[in-house]
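pasting for ref
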Amino acid sequence: MKFLNVEIPVKNLPELDQGFVPLGLFFKYHQLAATKPLCIAVERSGGQIGTWECKVCGTPEMAEADAYYVDRMVKFLLWSWGGFKVYICGDDALARQIQKAYTATGTRAFDKDFMENVYEREFQVISLPYESRPTAFQKSESVGRHTNGARIGFDAGGSDRKVSAVIDGETIYSEEVVWYPKVNPNPDYHYLGILAACATAAAKIMEKGRKVDGIGVSSAGVYIDNKCMVASLFLKVNKSDFEKKVKNIYTRVAEDLSRMLGYEIPVVVANDGDVSALAGAMGLGENGIMGIAMGTSEAVGYVDGEGNICGWLNELAFAPVDGQPDAMEDEWSGDIGCGVKYFSQDGVNKLAPRAGIELDETEPPAKRLKVVQELMAADDERAAAVYRSIGVYLGHTMGLYAQFYDIHHVQMMGRVMSGKGGDIILAEAARVMDEEYPDVAFRGSRRDDPPRGPELRGRQPAGSEISPGCNKSELFPRLRAGDFFVPQIGEIWYTVWRGGGNREHRHPSKKQDPAAAGALHPAHRGAADVCGHPKLAALSAERLGGLPVLFHRGQKHGLGSGALPGCV
């Protein structure tokens, strides 16, 4: 493949998208031909600066390739790290092109506005000599790894809110309440719901004679210094009310609760994707974890090689992955070739007609996805082609992500990854990575497969894996109480009862002695007894061989050992 005068030796292309240009390979082979040093630096809150050392060709015949490389690299770094100031160090002409793009009328006007809203700073692009490039300064935050103290965990979901009280690692209280944050324009509705939940949990801690040592909050959205900058939960709240009452909603709750109790209660707020990755890291006993959910959009969380949350945006749905000029456009950002159109239900719906699957375009995307999933369940070859193509996308994109992230494990989840289609995606991704990115060691494997390697330390070690899954609660073991505790990520135990009294006891992170569970009522044989989360019922056909599912929320239900650990 030749793209912008750069020879790219691509071995694998999606069978339903032969024009796909893997951006990671373009980056790699452009750099092999470049000789002129260039540094791209991105500054974000707290004086943090990330730097990317690279090169450009600096010749007329490669001018277009150089410009494209810098444009895509700046875009990727912004949506990975986040920031309000970009430094182009070493080439004034390229700096001017980026400056023009990130203006109110430029091609990256959306990106400029978004970053300005997140960081509350004017967005700037600055040209510097290479010798004057900024020094990198990035810090990460260690949260969630303490088991001592009395702590409150709050999870703000789109359909329910969850709260837990935890003392020295043991959950003493949990509650899940249905609410409607996305359709309510009154921010007081959200505030009172959050305060009520935290106050109730605080009372449960006080009943044990303890003080509240901290509050941890997990929610979808962008959070900077514990402030809510962007979040779909507050979709209907007007801009003025958002500024006055939503931005600081969690710190206000902590302050008001502190006044009630007469002592200061610290609060930590983090994106739920990062928290899920942290829970995965704790469950695996390893660091360098990336979690990718493929559903309505692409959602990403990351814990670095030291086991810390970096404070990066990690909004890779809007980071580019494909270089082809007629790639699908993201309606929100106006850009093309971004992850959201490849690793979500939109990706499936884009490819299905190319495979000969007729979809009703008047139906919502989720229903169209379900049509393809049903065909895949019936082993329809057209549906298999869709999932094979997504697997090729994923293999190339994991090679791209590995250039920017210290990845030891990738845990995949979301409705697109469910069932037979998810298995095909993982198999194809592994094959592509084997053939195209042999220096990247993590590979696709089923969640229940044993680790493939003795050592899990260092950058991209052998034994790293991409794991399938359907939701965070099923994938990740319980995040223990610390500076932050995530109540919705509970321990999930399920017992698969085979005919004749045979049974398997399964847990995402460890094996349980079958004898420890006692005996279930004979009527339950041939069923899956699920303790922890009602959504796991959906796994019956996909993961448990079509067995009926009996759901329990961790309470006593006839097992000799009593209550199993439940989802909070």
